[in-house]
Amino acid sequence: FSVTATNAGGCTGTSQTTTVTVNPQASATFAYGAADYCLSSGAPVTPTLTGTPGGVFSVLPSGLVIDDATGAVNLATSVPGTYTVTYAVAGPCPASLTQTLTLTAAPQGTFAYAATIGCAGSAGTLAPTLSAGSTAGTFSAQPAGLTIDAVTGVVTPATSLPGTYTISNLVTGTGACAPTTATATLTLLALPNVAISNLNATYCALDGPVTLSGTVNGQTAPGTFTINGQPATVFDPTALGVGAHTVAFTGTAGGGCDATVSFVVTVVAPPTQPVISVQPLAGGQVLLTSSQPTGNQWYLNGQLIVGATGPTYIVGTSSQNGNYTVICTVAGCPSVPSAPQNVQITGLTEAVAVGVALYPVPTLDGYVTLEVRATGRTADVVLFDAVGRAVWRTSFATGAATTAPTRHTLDLRTLPVGTYTLRLTTEHGTAIRRLVRE
C-alpha cells in the first residue's frame, strides 16, 4: 500500500509505497478420543487434528511412545503413567496445545496349579502359582463341589468331591481397563476303597503268623503294611506279644491316589495249661476234674468228645478206657493241652442183686421199668449220656433177695433221643445196664 503525507498548510508530500504481509495465526487444536487408556496390544491411538498441520507432538515425562508427526500413541509399548502431550506449530504465528493422557496397565490373573490332578478326600492343600505380573482377584469354581478359598485360590481336597473343575480368577480393572478373568482346570480323583482282607480282631499268642493281604476297590492289590508304625508283611501273634496292635494298609488306585485303613488286632494270652485230677468212684468208675472251671473241652486219645465241655468228666465203662486230655479256651484262645491222663477200668463189681432188669429197651415213649431184687437197702440210680455226663438220678429201697422184686417206673421223657448208661449202686456194689431212648 502507499502513504501520502499532508502538512498543516495543506501541502502534500511525495507519495511513498511499501508492501506489508499479514500471516494467519497458527492453530494447535487436537484431541484424543479419551483421557484414559488401557495398555494393550491393540492398534495405536491417534488424535484428531483440527489445527494447523505440520506441527510436532512431544510428551512429558518419558515412557509414552508417541509418533511426533501424527501423535499416535503405541499402547503396546508404552508404560503406565500420566503424561502431558503437546502439539506445537512453528512459524511467524506459532501455537501449541497440551492434553493429559493416563495409561493404565491391563489387569492380569493368569495362574496354574503345580498338579492338574489331585485326590479328593486327601490331606493337605493345593495352592495356585500366579504368573509374573498377575494378581489374585476373586477365585471361584464350577461346578459345585470344590472347596476353594475365594481370596487365595487354595483348594482343600479333604472336603472336596471328585470331579473336574474350571477355576476362575476374576481380577478387577482400574482406570480404563475392564476386569479380566483367567481360568485353569483341576481334576480331583476319588480315593480308592481299601481294606485289610485277612485279619481277625483277636488272636491267641500261640497262633501262627498270618501273611498280610489287602484289597483296593474290592480287588486284591499290592500295598504297604505297617504294624504299630513299622513296615511289615506278616502278623505274628507270638512275636508281637499280648496286647493291642494297630495294623495299617495303604493302597493305591489308578491316577496315583492312595488311601490308608487301620485295624486294631488284640493278641490274647492263652489260659494256663489245665491239670487233670483223678478221683475213683464207687463201682470202679473214675471222675476226671480239670483245674480250669470254665472253657473246657475233653479229648479221648486225641479225639474230641462231643458235648464234654464241663469241668468234670466221668469214665463209666471199660469201653471208655484210654488217654484223656483237656484243653481250656478263653476268649477264643485255647490253652496248651493238659498232660494226658490214662484211665483203665478193668471191671465193675456187680451189685449183690439176684436180679436187675430194665425194660423195655429201647423205650419209645420215655418210660422204662427198673426191676430190682437185692438186699432191702437203698439203691442209687444215675443215668449217664454218651459222653459220661450225669443227666438223671433217683434213689429207692430195694426188696430182699428172698422177696419179690421191687418195680420202679422211670420217667425219661425229658431226655433227648440217644444211648445212655444206667448205674445202680448199693452198699454191696454196682450194676450197669444199657438203655436206649428212641
Describe this entry's structure for a reader.
The protein has 438 residues and is mainly β. It has five domains: 30-104, Sandwich (Immunoglobulin-like); 111-190, Sandwich (Immunoglobulin-like); 196-267; 276-343, Immunoglobulins (Immunoglobulin-like); 355-437, Sandwich (Immunoglobulin-like), CATH 2.60.40. It contains one helix and 39 strands. The protein has one helix spanning 237-240, and strands at residues 2-3, 16-17, 30-31, 36-38, 48-49, 56-60, 81-89, 95-104, 111-113, 117-120, 128-130, 138-142, 163-171, 180-190, 194-196, 202-204, 210-211, 214-216, 219-220, 223-227, 230-232, 234-235, 243-252, 258-268, 276-280, 286-290, 296-300, 303-304, 312-315, 322-330, 333-334, 341-343, 355-359, 367-373, 378-384, 390-397, 406-411, 418-426, 429-437. Strands 16-24-23-20-21 form a five-stranded mixed β-sheet. Strands 27, 28, 30, 31 and 32 form a five-stranded antiparallel β-sheet that branches. The protein has a four-stranded mixed β-sheet with strand order 4-8-7-6, with no helix packed on it. A hairpin with a 5-residue loop joins β23 (243-252) and β24. The protein is rod-shaped. The model has no long low-confidence stretch (mean pLDDT 89).
Secondary structure layout plus pairing:
Layout: E1 2-3, E2 16-17, E3 30-31, E4 36-38, E5 48-49, E6 56-60, E7 81-89, E8 95-104, E9 111-113, E10 117-120, E11 128-130, E12 138-142, E13 163-171, E14 180-190, E15 194-196, E16 202-204, E17 210-211, E18 214-216, E19 219-220, E20 223-227, E21 230-232, E22 234-235, H1 237-240, E23 243-252, E24 258-268, E25 276-280, E26 286-290, E27 296-300, E28 303-304, E29 312-315, E30 322-330, E31 333-334, E32 341-343, E33 355-359, E34 367-373, E35 378-384, E36 390-397, E37 406-411, E38 418-426, E39 429-437
Parallel strand pairs: 4-8, 10-14, 16-24
Antiparallel strand pairs: 1-2, 3-5, 6-7, 7-8, 9-11, 12-13, 13-14, 15-18, 17-22, 18-19, 20-21, 20-23, 23-24, 25-26, 26-29, 27-28, 27-30, 30-31, 30-32, 33-34, 34-37, 35-36, 35-38, 38-39
